Structures are given as structure tokens and as C-alpha cells.
Amino acid sequence: xxxxxxxxxxxxxxxxxxxxxxxxxxxxxxxxxxxxxxxxxxxxxxxxxxxxxxxxxxxxxxxxxxxxxxxxxxxxxxxxxxxxxxxxxxxxxxxxxxxxxxxxxxxxxxxxxxxxxxxxxxxxxxxxxxxxxxxxxxxxxxxxxxxxxxxxxxxxxxxxxxxxxxxxxxxxxxxxxxxxxxxxxxxxxxxxxxxxxxxxxxxxxxxxxxxxxxxxxxxxxxxxxxxxxxxxxxxxxxxxxxxxxxxxxxxxxxxxxxxxxxxxxxxxxxxxxxxxxxxxxxxxxxxxxxxxxxxxxxxxxxxxxxxxxxxxxxxxxxxxxxxxxxxxxxxxxxxxxxxxxxxxxxxxxxxxxxxxxxxxxxxxxxxxxxxxxxxxxxxxxxxxxxxxxxxxxxxxxxxxxx
Length: 402
Fold this sequence. Notes:
about 0% strand, Serine Threonine Protein Phosphatase 5, Tetratricopeptide repeat
């Protein structure tokens, strides 16, 4: 089951892990190990950090999460209680879950009540759909918890909008959120939700406008910067996208995926050294992520370091043979290196996986032209033209007789 970590990383912790480089890297390795399913390694990393600093609640909390995923509920509970002792309210939900797993409904209900009394409480649906609580959901203690009305009207409206979006009723969600925002224009979470709905509808301009509004109202939500950064990156606004991913990492240093996205943005902005620093760090944490190696190859290609780009792309393809983008990018490297046969092969592989890539037809046509196959080249260029590639149309007029 997907876990929801709602730990707020304190400014003290952020400063601490960045001031001590080895500990910072160990903290990141612990998070990365958990995300890759290596919970024993994750717990080991945080155990080392606890030895270095036994006052940091985050270390106990994250080790508790790792232990819980390995079935060591008693040990996880001890860690969550230790985290809670060091920062009140930070682990109340996880403690409630542990007690439910141990079939101790009274203690579970007490800690769940404490969580529900906090401003950071999870949505009602998230809690009630958590399978952990099935063991106690028919007890009197569970029923007593839900006799109280924990959620405000705003909370309920937010939950309704989220349900509409997740149910595929995006048009209805936009209409409902727009109605509410007309009356309550300061609800940053509603702008964020409407941006999400607009994205699903393909309206990126409206999504960007709503994300801007949400950020203007609340600059402490890393998810807002994450979503806006990805939109800006897609729109070629590389420097602004990099700034947004930096804000994500400042607000929530555990969002390690922001390093990869920032690497792409920095490369687009021409800041290659910084870009390589980010992607190298990310790959050290996620060495089996094929997209990360592809991103590394793309950055090196942009720097015109085609030899090293090929090495990175070889790894991405070894890890995942099913992504046409990997073959297409490697084909571009071979084309630049005038290795036309390999370029043709890679573009063909990309097109086998997705015949609708107009650029791959175009580049394959160019490679075949250089390789001395004008008939095949023209056939590929004409295919690219039918898919909307304008450069292919220009080249076919020059190179291909009617």
C-alpha cells in the first residue's frame, strides 16, 4: 500500500544535514533505499544517523517506516514513539497504525484522535481506506472516534473535488471548484486542485495560471512548485523551472526526484556543470533507474559529449528495452558521430515501439540519405511529413523527386 509521509522537515534538520555532507548523503541514501524497496538498508542508514545524533526526530520516524515495511511492528512503534517524544504530533498517525496492527484498538483510537485534532490531519477517505485499520474498524473505540466531526466544510469540499478528479469527472470538478473560488478566492488548495483538473483536460495555460495563484497564496507547499516546475520545463522556461525545483528541495529535501528534474532544467538553461552534479547525485541514489541514465545521456548529448552520452544511454536501454525515447536519443548520438548504420537501427527500434514519432521518421530518413540510400530516405521523410514534421517536408522537396 502506498504510504503517506506527512513529516514536516524542520529548518533545523535541513540545516543540519546540509552542513554535514556525509550525514546528508547517508540520509538521502536511507530515503532512496526505502523507495527502492530495500527497507533493511534504509533502516541501517537511519540507525547510523541516530548514533550520530539521537535528538533528531526525523531519523527515528524514517527508520520506523522502514521497520514497519519489514513487518517489525513492535520495533517500528518504539521508533515512532521516540520521534513523537522529540516532536509532538509528528508520528501520531503512524503510532495509531502500529497499534491497529497489534490489535490494540483503544491505543490506536487515542492516537488517531490526536492525529485528527492536528492541522496536518490526512483526508478522511485516506484514513478510512487504510487497510491497516480493518482489524479495528468494527470496534466501539473506532466508532467513538468517528462520532466527532473532524473536518470543516472546506475540508469536505476539498475531498469532494479530489474525488471528482480521481473519478475522471474533471469538467465537473473544474465547474465546482470555479464556483467555490468565486466565493472564497483565497483557498490555495482549490487553485491547486483546479490546476490538476486543467492538466488532465490538456489546458496547460489555465493550469499554470492556477498554480501561480496557489503559490501567491501559499509559498510553503512543495507540491505547487513541483507541478509548476514541470510545466515550465515542458514549456522551455528552463531557468524558472530550475528555480522551482530548487524551492521544492528547500521546502522538502526528501523529494529526491527534484534533483533529476532540476538537472534537466539546468541543462536547458546551459548550466551543464550544475546539471551534471544533480544527475550524478541522483544516479548514485537510484543506480537502476533507466530514466535517470537516459537523462544523463540527454545532458551529455546537449553538451556534445556524444561518446559519454552513448555510455549512459546504453545503460538506460539495458535496464529498459521498452522505451522508444531511449533508442531515439541514442540514434541521435550515432547520427552526430556519423555512425549511420547504428543510427538507422536505433531509429527503427524506436519506431517499432511507437510508429507515431514523426521526428524519428525524419532522423531515420536523414541517416539513410547519408548512408547512401536515397530511396529509403525519401520514404521515411514522406512518412514524417504525413505525421506533421515541417522540416521533413522542406528536406523532401530538396532531396526527393516526385
